[in-house]
Amino acid sequence: MVNIPCIRPTLLALALLLGTQAKAMESIPADSDWINAVTDLGCVPDGKTDCTAALQAFAPANKHDVGTIYFPAGRYPIHDRFHPGNKRVVLQGAGRERSVIILAPNSPGYSKADKPRAVVAIGQEEMANPKSNMGQAFRNSVYDLSIEVGAGNPGAVALDYHNNNQGSVERVSLVAAKDSGKAGLGLVSNWPGPTLIHDVSSPDSNSASGVPLANIQ
Q1: Which pTM does this prediction carry?
Q2: How far apart, in whole angstroms, are the C-alpha atoms of residue 102 and residue 107?
Q3: Which CATH superfamily is domain 2-201 in?
Q4: Looking at residue 64, what is its pLDDT?
Q5: 59 pLDDT exceeds 60?
Q6: What is the Cα–Cα distance from 184 to 149, expressed in whole angstroms?
Q7: For 123-179, how does the pLDDT look when each residue is reduced to its tens digit (9 = 90+)?
Q8: pLDDT score for 52
């Protein structure tokens, strides 16, 4: 696996912090209102069973108030984009080494590096959408999981993230097979931030300066 860089805009209120990793959420209370990707959505995180249909079938009652989707420990193969909603979306894993969303090798729609496409999209469904919600993507967060891009997906952006206020990406790994993946983190929809990016890395991290995609004003 190699590090895939960050797509970054020209203007972004972004805090980069170094600190001690918090304890991951390894289980949730039985009476929680969180959505369980396994027991509620039907994913089989065995590293072999494709979870695309189960995740894409998720239809929140209100796409602007989605809630928390919990990914128990396991490996979740997919072959297409997962976009759970626009606002108040939280993806919570059981730990970056334990909960892994995997884009399968040679997935349709990811073959062209000049046409980047998200694996997981939080906020806007389409990257750099000119009709984005103009600063209304509130409370979107991703915690304690990894997103891996398999070989043969040069156009893949592991996480396209759009948040405005009270959201963060923390304790997350974004990695790709050699010569695969356009970028790790996309921050390109109008307008990203203020947000917190904390402890987002690759296990064998190489220094990456970023891949500018759009001039966000």
Answers
A1: 0.83
A2: 11
A3: Single-stranded right-handed beta-helix, Pectin lyase-like (2.160.20.10)
A4: 74
A5: yes
A6: 9
A7: 877 776 666 656 778 899 999 999 999 999 999 999 999 898 889 999 999 999 988
A8: 98
Please choose, from the candidates 43, 35, 45, 47, the residue with its C-alpha nearest in 3D space to the C-alpha of residue 88.
35
DSSP string, 167-197: -EEEEEEEEE-TT--SEEEE--SS---SEEE
Write down the pLDDT at residue 207.
30
9 touches 214 (CB < 8 A): yes
Structure tokens belonging to residue 178: 């050699």
Per-residue CA distances from 25 to 71, 92, 94, 143 (Å): 10, 8, 5, 9
Question: 46: which DSSP letter?
Answer: B
pLDDT for 33: 87
For the chain, the C-alpha Rg in angstroms (whole number) is 16
Domain assignments of the chain as residue spans, ordered by start? 2-201
Tokens of 195: 């947000």
Closest CA to 120 of 132, 110, 112, 133: 110
In the three-class reduction of DSSP (H, G, I as helix; E, B as strand; rest coil), residue 203 is classed as: coil
